[in-house]
Amino acid sequence: MITLPAPKPEILARKAEIVAALSAIVPGDGVISEPTRLKPYETDGLAAYRQVPLAVVLPRTTDQVAAVLRYCHETGVRVVPRGAGTSLSGGALPMEDAVVVGLMRMNRIIEIDLEDRLAVVEAGVTNIGITNAVSGDGFFYAPDPSSQLACMIGGNVMMNSGGAHCLKYGVTANNLLGVKFVTIEGEVIDIGGAHLDAAGYDWLGLITGSEGQLGMVTEVTVRILRGPEGARAMLAAFKGTEIAGAAVDAIIGSGIIPVALEFMDKPCIHACEAFAHAGYPLDAEAMLIIEVEGSVAEQDDLLARIKAICERFDPISLKVAESAEQSLAIWKGRKGAFGAVGRISPDYLCMDGTIPTSELPFVLKRIGEMSTQYGLGVANVFHAGDGNLHPLIMFDANDADSFHRAESFGADILRLCVEVGGCLTGEHGVGVEKRDLMTVQFTAHELDQQRAIKSAFDPQWLLNPSKVFPLQDMPLAAE
Amino acid sequence: MSELLSPPDEAGLAAAIAAAHAAREPIAIEGNGSKRGLLRPVQAARTVSTRNLSGITLYSPAELVLSARAGTPIPEIEAALAEKGQHLIAEPPDTRAIFGTDEPATLGGIVAANLSGPRRVAWGAMRDHVLGIRFVNGAGEVMRSGGRVLKNVTGLDLCKLLAGSYGTLGVMTEITLKVLPAPEATGTLLIAVADAEMGVRALSAGLGSPFGVSGAALLPGEPMMAALRIEDFAPSVTYRLARLREALASFGNNTVLDGDAARAFWREVRDVRPLGAAAEEAVWRISVRPSAGPAVARAAEALGGRAMLDWGGGLVWVAAPAQASAHETLAAAAAASGGTCTLFHGPEALRRTVAVLPQEPPALAMIARRVKAVLDPAGILNPGRMRAGG
């Protein structure tokens, strides 16, 4: 269980005054303070943790966000920034003595420029909303987290979100040009712009993935890309995880970078097949979904090359999609993986470590042993090209012991990821979930350095409290 | 001439910096010193170099990962990658011709300056491919950020903060990069265009096509030449180049380059040679939205200079008379479209006089001072390299 500090009584006592001040800044229906209406904001995608916030404020403009933050800074009120609340690491988990600043009403698309290949949007525009705005002209916004129908670009910036296609197109950080950044002191700063590689320190790079620790973002300028002529998938199933891993190495080694390269282990194949009836081979120990892009002839050429490589690894099954429909059928099981696991287990924790891909067989073997040790099932899906592992640990939330075992199991997996040369989180963020494991990856000195950089932006430590950094040994500024 | 210290290893480097920190004594930071002529000159009695921290420490082609000590020369890394059919994604320029130096750039120097070549427009900048760093901060403490895996969002991303900080926030000692397979084939479409506007429209049409353009430059001359590169497996390059040629036929007469000729062409563009900067001229590197590139190019011509555009028009290299007034004109032209202007190289007197980088707005400058104080509390690392008095 992750400890959350007790709320400060002096802040709780000021609730009426704080709500009145916020209502003056965001008039009308901009502030929520009644307990029943605050309830929907009590958690995010990490539903095991819940805290009803002091109030929720829903600004419509950058100036309002700046005024809210300035007020909170001047009166010592903590702030939890929120987009759509889809964080899987508890990045948007409220605190009882904090004000949630939600950006969902800032959902305008400000500018689309196909010539310069960029879009300027407010932070509350959904990820898919950007692609939808430009797809009629054949363009798209590349990062595609699985929550892309709901998650908002402001949250994507703060968590540096990834997705299944980042092996080729990169993560959020690689697809940004600029942000409108609001400091806790209420200053509005334009960082970057419509151009690449602005001169001077790379503040855009530092802010991206900072999990709401440094400030808030109200507008984002993203690069948009012209889509390929087409894309098609194939499926390859193997007798062992080592064999599938070796096939991945051979594909990359041949000079092909598929646009997606997804790996599923046996429990995951079974769960997905039972759910989606995608025709996955149930006798396989591991399965790859490989997608390539280009004209039909280019797709044929690349898929033939990949098929020839896979054939060297004694596959159980090789299925090359002949059409877009067949591609969708191959993806159907994978896209429904989380739902599929949700069907065979009442609850699951989705982990998110990254490992050097050469360590995959060893790591999967160790996860299997831990599964036995903890008495909990686990299914693994994995972005094989970039080593980003998503073990889904199955448990029952109504059984406290089961939940605690699931958390310990998850922590052991992440320790293992760091041990083999990887990291705690590839795309979900540290949030509240992995906060206490940061000491596994970083020395005390390194954490202090990061904390001091946070202090440079947020001297009173009011922004997104109790996340990212372990609570012990906090600098004095934190209290 | 500043006294040169070249510690043999990271511990030695950390000790040298710790000593300078304790003595509150400014030090200049460099690798091979190939970019001493970049930005502002540093006044320091001592220079600390990473040149002896050399060598590739990890190369795992199947994992697309390479680590090397900061002082490793770029050509050594390029050669090791080429042996396995891979390459540096951002194709950093070889700037020896611009700076008039002999020694090649080091990995640390290229990352510290975040220098990227033509492929940046499609595949990201040098800083986009930095997966992890080890660095010594201004107090002489060894720190790490990132790691050796391709996806990592654990903690604040100090890799990006240090990349492009020109040695003013810390001294990188080891850098881990994402690398990619080198393409089997390279082809280039050259279009003779009437003017810069037409040229940038042609580049935009190419970059906005589904054919995967990985280089888009506009070269000065009579006529101006728009160049678009396709890199991939050979059948793809043949196919896409033909389609691109059809799609862009209306922009002007065109020809195709392939094989070694195409590769040599883009090496020239990468190294900014088509700009033809003379030794007595200054060189500016201006980043704007691509459609604003032609206006900056015209401002350069009005000064009696020339411009070469890369990144689809968004990166404008300018060679013009080395005068403060020219700098002010170009900085204003960049700012007019919200872009940034860097005085990349010029006589020392000019680099000392003008603001070589744009000023930050006051609120950001205040945060910058605080962050600098965290990473370099005594302010000893490369003082004055980026801005006077900082």
TrEMBL record, chain A:
<keyword id="KW-0285">Flavoprotein</keyword>
<dbReference type="InterPro" id="IPR036318">
    <property type="entry name" value="FAD-bd_PCMH-like_sf"/>
</dbReference>
<protein>
    <submittedName>
        <fullName>FAD-binding protein</fullName>
    </submittedName>
</protein>
<keyword id="KW-0274">FAD</keyword>
<dbReference type="InterPro" id="IPR016169">
    <property type="entry name" value="FAD-bd_PCMH_sub2"/>
</dbReference>
<dbReference type="Pfam" id="PF02913">
    <property type="entry name" value="FAD-oxidase_C"/>
</dbReference>
<dbReference type="InterPro" id="IPR006094">
    <property type="entry name" value="Oxid_FAD_bind_N"/>
</dbReference>
<dbReference type="InterPro" id="IPR016171">
    <property type="entry name" value="Vanillyl_alc_oxidase_C-sub2"/>
</dbReference>
<dbReference type="InterPro" id="IPR016166">
    <property type="entry name" value="FAD-bd_PCMH"/>
</dbReference>
<dbReference type="InterPro" id="IPR051914">
    <property type="entry name" value="FAD-linked_OxidoTrans_Type4"/>
</dbReference>
<feature type="domain" description="FAD-binding PCMH-type">
    <location>
        <begin position="49"/>
        <end position="227"/>
    </location>
</feature>
<dbReference type="InterPro" id="IPR004113">
    <property type="entry name" value="FAD-bd_oxidored_4_C"/>
</dbReference>
<dbReference type="Pfam" id="PF01565">
    <property type="entry name" value="FAD_binding_4"/>
</dbReference>
<keyword id="KW-0560">Oxidoreductase</keyword>
<dbReference type="InterPro" id="IPR016164">
    <property type="entry name" value="FAD-linked_Oxase-like_C"/>
</dbReference>
UniProtKB/TrEMBL annotation, chain B:
<keyword id="KW-0560">Oxidoreductase</keyword>
<keyword id="KW-0285">Flavoprotein</keyword>
<dbReference type="InterPro" id="IPR016164">
    <property type="entry name" value="FAD-linked_Oxase-like_C"/>
</dbReference>
<dbReference type="GO" id="GO:0019154">
    <property type="term" value="F:glycolate dehydrogenase activity"/>
</dbReference>
<keyword id="KW-0274">FAD</keyword>
<dbReference type="InterPro" id="IPR016166">
    <property type="entry name" value="FAD-bd_PCMH"/>
</dbReference>
<dbReference type="InterPro" id="IPR006094">
    <property type="entry name" value="Oxid_FAD_bind_N"/>
</dbReference>
<dbReference type="InterPro" id="IPR036318">
    <property type="entry name" value="FAD-bd_PCMH-like_sf"/>
</dbReference>
<dbReference type="Pfam" id="PF01565">
    <property type="entry name" value="FAD_binding_4"/>
</dbReference>
<dbReference type="InterPro" id="IPR004113">
    <property type="entry name" value="FAD-bd_oxidored_4_C"/>
</dbReference>
<feature type="domain" description="FAD-binding PCMH-type">
    <location>
        <begin position="1"/>
        <end position="182"/>
    </location>
</feature>
<dbReference type="Pfam" id="PF02913">
    <property type="entry name" value="FAD-oxidase_C"/>
</dbReference>
<protein>
    <submittedName>
        <fullName>Glycolate oxidase subunit GlcE</fullName>
        <ecNumber>1.1.99.14</ecNumber>
    </submittedName>
</protein>
<dbReference type="InterPro" id="IPR016169">
    <property type="entry name" value="FAD-bd_PCMH_sub2"/>
</dbReference>
